[in-house]
């Protein structure tokens, strides 16, 4: 088993194409062609975590947070980042970070938070823009079915709970090949008219390469006429944060007590309680102050996130309750999610859940 096999499977779950632009996801150290001995799954890759990987004979660390976030100009071991990276390189340990790719996954970080709180009717809070593309191509009528099925098989034509979605328009296509052409239909130098079908399908952007390969492999023409455009449509399955609902409404204090117990946080910093029951809940693991307006617009009674600053709490404006449950606490179940996914897909392979405590914040 090679590291690239592990990465390929992880990217079916949380494609790095959907990570935020500021992020640094993917393989950070090592080679994708290394043979895997074992996988250690962690929230953070600290020097102590690398030590744990060495002890557990794991040469691949799958980490939620990237230890290398901005560029490294030197590797002298002067801080915790450089020490972790140096030790990983010295011991031939690869580090793969998934971070906001998993944040934006429908079955990722925020879905786990919702599961822990028994929230139903889940929806993405901030759908990611530019994540849906559209392919238009023109195919001889007799070949349209084969091309269409190949596109479906490669992942095109899936919309929400439906697949095999396409729009087909019959028409007449024309072309004339020059002296260097080798037309499958018609003769070079002569204008040819052919009954064609215009096939239109949408697809998630991370599948573009495989979908175009399927098109080129099955299309009969020497030169394939096609166009790919990026749509502004909202993607129901990709984006930051989630909104869900409790089966029955509860008081604010009852809900906050459940949150505190569920996530084991030392304290919950929150805005003024409004004396209203909690039914609709918005969540965003990690730093989520940028989503306060989105949570309010979604009609949430409370917004659970982390790293709220003093002035952020004013943004509640009596519309909802803001609750800072802690950065680590909000993301702590993420490594369990990753470990479960890897164990399911690599059942005969050593996948170890890190036992190293990486939360830098303590409560007195």
From TrEMBL:
Which Gene Ontology molecular function entries are recorded, alphabetically? metal ion binding
Q: Give UniProt keywords alphabetically.
A: Metal-binding
Tell me the superkingdom of the source: Bacteria
Where on this chain does a divalent metal cation bind? 65, 103, 327, 331
Q: Which InterPro entries match?
A: DUF34/NIF3 (IPR002678), DUF34/NIF3_bac (IPR017221), DUF34/NIF3_sf (IPR036069), N-reg_PII/ATP_PRibTrfase_C (IPR015867)
Q: Which GO terms describe its cellular component?
A: cytoplasm
Could you say which protein family the record assigns here?
A: Belongs to the GTP cyclohydrolase I type 2/NIF3 family.
* Subunit structure comment from the entry: Homohexamer.
Q: Which NCBIfam families match?
A: YbgI_SA1388 (TIGR00486)
Name of the featured protein: GTP cyclohydrolase 1 type 2 homolog
Q: Which source organism does the UniProt entry give?
A: Salinimicrobium sediminis
Organismal lineage: Bacteria, Pseudomonadati, Bacteroidota, Flavobacteriia, Flavobacteriales
